[in-house]
């Protein structure tokens, strides 16, 4: 997928999910989970270094995003957005790998087959990794600009409509 298409998809998704500045990655995950019909569970875990910073495990009842617990909040947000990028770009696991023990501890209820499928993600090619990283970068770029340039949205829906009609263009367009 080209960068222009990724930008269009990100913009559309953020607008549809009513994600406004300041960006809250947990709110984004909650709303995206509702849209996908299953929750996205964020799992901070001290992943071994060197190794992956994050991992997405898709099950029939939930999507799990494991991310490095021992890093900064901004890096954690980037890791989570990268994993969301795989979802948004419609990536599907493929390839073979053995389940890693680190995934069994934090979520012992996960089906071993789900863990196995998730670890196949390590076989994504460079194009898939580029797409996921581009999605994370696009969202973070927009958030860094919008978080500091757009006035806070009013809590009241009617007041937000008035702000939208009378104010400068706001949001992800």
From TrEMBL:
Gene3D superfamilies noted in UniProt: 1.10.10.2910
Listed name of the protein: IrrE N-terminal-like domain-containing protein
Source lineage: Bacteria, Bacillati, Actinomycetota, Actinomycetes, Pseudonocardiales
